[in-house]
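Posting this for the archive.
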Amino acid sequence: MTEILVQGRKGGGAPSAERVVDHASWPVLKGAVEEIRRWQSKDGSIDFEAEGAPARATVELALDRAISAIEDLSPLLPHDAEYHRALVTDFRRWADAGFAVPDFLDSLLSFQPAQQRADGLQHLVVFPMYTQNGNPNRNLEAVVLRVVWPDWLAELERTRFDNPMFLGITFEDFTGGYDTNSAVLFPETIAVREAPERFTWGAIFCDREAARFRKVTEAAVDILRLELPEDIREMIGDQRRCQQAFVLWDMVHDRTHSHGDLPFDPFMIKQRQPYWMYGLEELRCDLTAFKAAVKLEAEGFAQARDVQYAVIFDRMFRFPVTGERVRNYDGLGGQLLFAYLHRHDVVRWTDNTLHIDWDRAPQVTNQLCAEIEKLYREGIDRPKLVHWFAAYDLVSSYLAPHPGSTWAKGPDALDLTQPPRKLVDDVLPDEFPLSMFYEALAKKLKGVIASTKGITAQSAASTSGAGPAPAKPTVTAGAA
């Protein structure tokens, strides 16, 4: 990302461009948070009766160091002053309560980053929270980040893709819960006494997404001997360019969850559904972003072509072979996209080499989007269970179900006297297993995907500006 463009002011003086992570108090805060978080339980509390637990005075000293560091750093970020004051109050209240389950609702309500979206603006965020795809416990985390909000993106959000809660962000530094695969900062993950009436922001680390995408795509292109158009090869070698693609992709994807013909709560909150429903929803949002990017490319937006290939490559190469196979709905969406493109002869695996029809790829990818949109539109008139079966039929038209699947045998094989949520128990953990192609690819990409844990733009900088390595004819995905 470029150097800071907009920053808060110290008093009435000039904008401060000092990086929070360069200040002497940042390592003090980071160290204090790391010390406290290792003593916390899953719910964020500290059990002083547990074996090996610290003395309360020890925790209080660490907390005092954290509070002092926050107060030292806060003047660098006057736009966060109210939040930091509330944060200190929440910390002290937590200590007064004997370090029970933390409640940081007041500081959460004071943190309103979406109200001041400015490219390069820094934030210092400290909360007890879990990190999605990272640490599942509500432990203390500290993260310094910058907002990604270039003028062209701000104009698109204002005129075409209204999403007032969305923030693209990049890492400056972080504590252990983000030294993981987590690429989001969501208010829903923070420990509070009660959920706010509504959330007002949601942030996605486009630098981690871009760096992870680049590393996995470069490896997949090499393994599969895929020939890339020169502009796409250059894109994959450019961290900043990929970040711009991901921030546009994420903004459109995020808003799509609440737009369109929706037969059910798009986020599926508090609903128990078969995981292919989640997979179709995530894929619908990605393909809507793809469809929008096709239109934007025709209008001259340079980032739009990059979005299209970021969606195709991330969905086809990384998603299907990342994570466990238990209800892996993102993996399922990637499998479906590949199978659809393969069935329609856009993607071909011949002579241990992957070929893509670059001219037809946009049209056929949009065609899959239209099929999912048709499923949703017709689902408005269907009972829930009928809709689930219709979705299953769509997926199983392109992906082979597990041979032992009860759902694959149809409604007669299920006990339809049970409520729909009970029938979810009959869904296999891996209802749609990987194809032989993906089983082989997964083995070859396993180490590369594992190496992307905790990746950022800084850690990917060594490859910035360089395209993918030349193809190695002796390496194929066809071998077991």
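The CA atoms of residues 393 and 430 lie 16 Å apart. The longest strand covers residues 139-148.
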